[in-house]
């Protein structure tokens, strides 16, 4: 058993931290204020291979492991969870199914430009009446000669209003339940594909979130990913990997909140001494640091399992549940330690608190993670 990061992992961690602090951090305030994702980051990060972190060199990525992806995601989220949202959908959730199940033509047409940052990707599962229960989606894709005709809508879609293509879950055979769901690519500009609205959010404001509508969208059969009616399985695979990533996201935001609170506790003076001298606050910070470390270690373990090809459905859900709940508490304590200043928009700690709330909801709520864990326990 070896709990140290390899030299390569440490080198990569320094590189991505440096990049995030120099290239992303200066853009955070404006992007959050305008509620706009800084799209110029896509080609910039694409040139450095960051958008294809786990994809092989053949497609333009560095071919790194899951642990490297966790390092990458933690460092991005330490600087800005909103911007990280858009980037992580691009490098993972919205492109993974194409990599694992797409044809070579689809990889060249969609994956390679996404890795280069020339095309923006999104994943559309959620609908106004279907979130946790994917089987209740109403979007359909009807075969018509060499095409599919897609009808339906998607909501809360990250990168939704800026995406060049969206991987959409749709029923190709409703009678088969989840075994009748397929994944299809809808490209921007397809007649009948409209962006209904851009959504305003509590947190993660620099990420783009949209509602999309498809009305009789005719798409070529070449836009089907993998096999017809196998989409649900592809989604479950991508979500398992994504849940480990939510461990890294949570650790990144919690780390940022902790660093801010620690610094503030050393600087803020009340009753003639820094507030960090009061044992109550020392205990708070000690427990915060412990919780973050526990979540980080657990995240790396699940990532290691995935890298080794060890089944980790249960662990992935446990990581998401544990780490996303941890960051709720850590960010709330960080606000508390800042007192009234913590409630003011001029201190970043309020942003960490707002951003973290999203994490117990997206990619399977905390309740759904418990459903999965209980099922894996044989209940
Ligand atoms: C900022 C943001 C970005 C997002 N990005 C994307 C994206 O890019 N692509 C995409 O497809 N979706 C995206 N989503 C959607 C997200 O994945 C869903 O919001 C999430 O899956 C929950 O679905 P819902 O909102 O419909 O809630 P619901 O499923 O309606 O759940 C409501 C409540 O009921 C609980 N609940 C539901 N079922 C059960 C059960 N069986 N047992 C116990 N409790 C239950 C839930 O835990 C929750 O507390 C995003 C959401 C947000 C907020």
Overall description:
It is built from eleven helices and ten strands. By secondary structure, the chain is of the alpha+beta class. It folds into three domains: 110 residues, Butyryl-Coa Dehydrogenase, subunit A, domain 1 (Orthogonal Bundle), CATH 1.10.540.10; 109 residues, Butyryl-CoA Dehydrogenase, subunit A, domain 2; 145 residues, Butyryl-CoA Dehydrogenase, subunit A, domain 3 (Up-down Bundle), CATH 1.20.140.10. The protein has a four-stranded mixed sheet with strand order 1-4-5-8. A hairpin with a 2-residue loop joins β9 and β10. α3 packs antiparallel against α4, α7 runs antiparallel to α8 and α7 runs antiparallel to α10. It is globular. The two termini are 31 Å apart. The mean pLDDT is 97. The site of flavin-adenine dinucleotide has 21 residues, from β1, β3 and α11.
Number of helices: 11
CATH homologous superfamily grouping of the largest domain: Butyryl-CoA Dehydrogenase, subunit A, domain 3
Attached small molecules: flavin-adenine dinucleotide
Element string (H = helix, E = strand): HHHHHHEEEEEEEEHEEHHHH
Total E-strand runs: 10
User: Main beta sheet: strand number and arrangement?
Assistant: 4 strands, mixed
CATH architecture of the largest domain: Up-down Bundle
Low-pLDDT runs: none
Cα gyration radius (Å)? 21 Å
> Separation of termini?
31 Å
User: In one word, what is the shape?
Assistant: globular
How are the strands ordered across the major sheet? 1-4-5-8
In CATH, what is the class of the largest domain? Mainly Alpha
Mean pLDDT: 97
